Amino acid sequence: MSEWKKNDKFETVIEDISETGEGIGKTDGFTWFIKDTVIGDRVEAKAMKTKKSYGFARMERILEPSKNRVEPKCPVARQCGGCQLQAMDYKEQLTFKERKIYNNLTRIGGFTEIPMLPIIGMDEPWRYRNKAQFPWGMDKEDNIITGFYAGRTHSIIGCEDCLLGIEENEDILKIIKAHMERFGLRLYDEETHKGLIRHTLIRKGFKTGELMVCQVINGKSLPHQEELVEELLKIPGMTSISYSVNREKTNVIMGNQVENLYGPGYISDYIGDVKYRISPLSFYQVNPVQTEKLYGTALEYAGLTGGETVWDLYCGIGTISLFLAQKAKKVYGVEIVPQAIEDARENAKLNGMENVEFFVGKAEEVLPEQFEKNQVYADVIVVDPPRKGCDEVCLDTIVKMGPKRVVYVSCDSATLARDLKYLAERGYELSRVRGCDMFPHSGHVETVALLTLV
Ligand code: SAH
């Protein structure tokens, strides 16, 4: 055990930021994780919980602020669990993310020369989210409030106007709150599993201006629906109003079923020239502006001239597949979630694209099977796996198929580095790497890498 005890005070300088956004400082070789700090801050902190070689501490006082420290724009930035980097100047956030990618590629990937292009940041890193799910609760004076969960808890921090979200959120939430008060609707209580009103889902198509509201309820129907619809329709752009029944004791927000109250049951949006239909339950990237840049980069790296056969592994609802299909002869998508593939096929039809075909299944099963049985071929393979990266069987099959180019889109640069190393040891050369900031003020960063067969 360390000699540190709870509530011990100490001084340290923040040198780095953890995966989850805490500042990292040291005292005589002991490592501290301290929330709400920025690289370069000299702080006084208080020990909360200690292990053998590291501990968690609470920031008590900033003794000397980092030159990159800024006043968070959002008044609840410190309590809310949503943003980790708001106190860091946006330029510095981008530098931090770029360095994270670079460090992982050198430390884990073993690369010495990294052909890195400047990270793609946002010109305006606020109000970029097209989707929000607001929980409802009571404050100490028994007022109805909504906002966001404080980090790692279910206590609600009141905030109707998150600065990452759209401006319409606030007006929509006011209408829903007024409706609850007017008709005495009860809030859902997680502990007793009683009460009706659960989360409110709000989505917007940034290119179309279309708005969607879906109210989640613990009950069969939403009382006084007509009055609610009438009020919500006063908001310009309101296109789809529905409710979702979720009677389970669960942290999952949406129920499986959606009942339509107004409109076609979906909204539409575009990424580039490709149109997407978004229903309350369908997956859609939350930052459409950066998604367009990210997929634009993937498309550029794919180097398509119109004659290529492309595989898009981990394709989700086919966003990248359809983007590529604009410039390829044929695109095959593979995704494990059947519902996502239904959406992908629907979106292909919506855009009149006939040169795409989708498979439901694991990439590491579908690809080897198609390769061994049907000798399928690829000029280019694009992968966009979840955080854990690609399965080795999948990488191995890619190597066997020997496409000229592999484009790797990643949301975790540590597993990216591991997988790139595997491919680089088997005939591929790392030709380009570029970060893209999809989630300003959070610690996350997306990366696109291009590998070329040598
Ligand atoms: N490119 C997609 C998003 C990819 S997110 C888009 O833009 O919509 C990663 C996707 O991989 C998720 O949809 C997830 O369901 C899927 N997935 C996870 N494990 C998988 C596996 N073993 N094989 C295929 N798909 C998988």
From TrEMBL:
- For the ligand (S-adenosyl-L-methionine), the binding residues are Q285, Y314, E335, D384
Q: Which gene encodes it?
A: rlmD
Keyword DNA repair (UniProt): no
Q: Which family does it belong to?
A: Belongs to the class I-like SAM-binding methyltransferase superfamily. RNA M5U methyltransferase family.
Residue span(s) of domain TRAM: 3-61
**What are the positions of the active site?**
C411, C411 (nucleophile)
Q: What is this protein called?
A: 23S rRNA (Uracil(1939)-C(5))-methyltransferase RlmD
Annotated GO biological processes are: methylation
